[in-house]
Structure of DUF4174 domain-containing protein:
Amino acid sequence: MLKTISFLILIFSFAMNLNAQDLSKHQWEDRLVLIIAEEENETFQQQLTELQKHQQGLKERKLVIYQILPEKYTTGFEEENWKTSSELFQKYKAEKSGFRIILIGLDGGEKLDQTEVLSVEKLFNTIDSMPMRQAEMRKNR
């Protein structure tokens, strides 16, 4: 009986890891910016353009960009290497908007969530006010 329960727990844990396979690998390594849209629209493109202008600042803050559309996603700004999956879109899509952007911290928690274009200034100020980022900045002086 104990072996059966242990086996079921192992299978359940494995299944949970599959659901979180794409984002959990970043925990304690990277901060994430998830850009979720119903389609590649003007707001989606404005957000990408806003972030692309500040790639050094993104790198300094250990930010990984996820572009998430209904049937596919990719990381970074490249238009290649899209992966087919609707899992991330289903999990993070906006309820009442065709656009959503989420900041996920090193600990895996959501730190910022909005349905309009996020300015780099607000993004960086939010991150720079976090205790872990403050420690990173002190360490790098």
Summary: The longest strand covers residues 31-37.
